[in-house]
Amino acid sequence: MKMAHIALAFALAVLSGTPAGSAAQAQPAAPAVARNVVLVHGAWADGSSWTEVIPLLQAAGLNVTAVQNPLTSLAESVAATRRALALQDGPTVLVAHSWAGTVISETGTDPKVSALVYVAARAPEAGEDFLALSGKFPAGPVRAGVQEHAGFTTISERSFLDYFANGVEPKKAKVLYAVQEPAAASLFGERTTAAAWHSKPSWYAVSTLDQTINPDFERFLAKRMNATTVELAAGHLSLVSHPSEIADLILAAASRKE
Fold it and tell me: At what angle are helices 100-107 and 74-86 packed, to 10 degrees?
């Protein structure tokens, strides 16, 4: 997919068109050319959720690091991402899926970060009550499958396969279900102290068939941050079902693709 032609109130919260391929207003300033990409996975997933995207970025000559996000608290997830950023040797595109948009909004102020990419992701304002904001949009059906045990949440198998991984090939979806990382229930209400998208060029991939985060909520967030936006006819896991389009978006953020 060419850029010129330009897809959780998770847990108990973030669940809410323009035609596919439409673009929002571009960022006012171009980012530095980057050779590094740091990928941050969302709730109920691990770093393997980027498996389809990573080889495409590597084939383009980018150095790629996938953070193993602990999902135990915002502070610990932020710390894991900062450790990954510290190892980069220059301009770096910071990418998030889903809840991890909270993490990159906080850590994206790092001077090494040249651009931000949000994939069906949260994008909170500093100090914002994001649960209250997400509540303005209808909840997605995945919410009914969220289960809590000892302070951590997971998604039931049926809800995961039908709603969280809708659009993903069934055998692959079952593997993703098997490796889902429990997320602390407290994670979803935590607030950031920064919103890096105010100062860093940002890109956003809206999933128009998302049944976890409402697509209209995604559009709202993308517009609020003035992100360069693509819309993909994909479910929540567009990074798995549409890896080429997600890789193209990241390459554009790295100033590697028109």
Answer: 60
If we measure between CA atoms, which residue out of 112, 68, 58 comes closest to residue 90? 112
Q: Are 19 and 231 within 8 A, CB to CB? A: yes
Question: How far is the CA of 146 from the CAs of 76, 77, 80, 132, 157, in angstroms?
Answer: 22, 21, 25, 19, 10
How does pLDDT run across 104-153, given as a tens digit for each residue? Answer: 999 999 999 999 999 999 999 999 999 999 999 998 999 999 999 999 99
CB 228 within 8 A of CB 255: no
Around Cβ 90, how many Cβ atoms within 10 Å? 12
Amino acid at site 160: F
Q: Residue 32 — pLDDT band, cuts 50, 70, 90?
A: confident
Q: Which helix (H) or strand (E) holds 85?
A: helix 74-86
String of DSSP letters for 93-140? EEEEETTHHHHHHHHTTSTTEEEEEEES---PPTT--HHHHHTTSPPP
Tokens of 200: 């860093």
Amino acid identity, residue 7? A
- For tokens 């948009």, what's the residue? 101
Strand 146-149 and strand 152-155: the pairing is antiparallel
Q: Are 122 and 130 in contact (CB under 8 A)?
A: yes
Q: What is the mean pLDDT of residues 193-203?
A: 97
Concatenating the DSSP letter of every residue in 26-56 gives PPSSPPPP-SEEEEE--TT--GGGGTTTHHH
Query: What pLDDT is recorded for position 29?
Result: 55
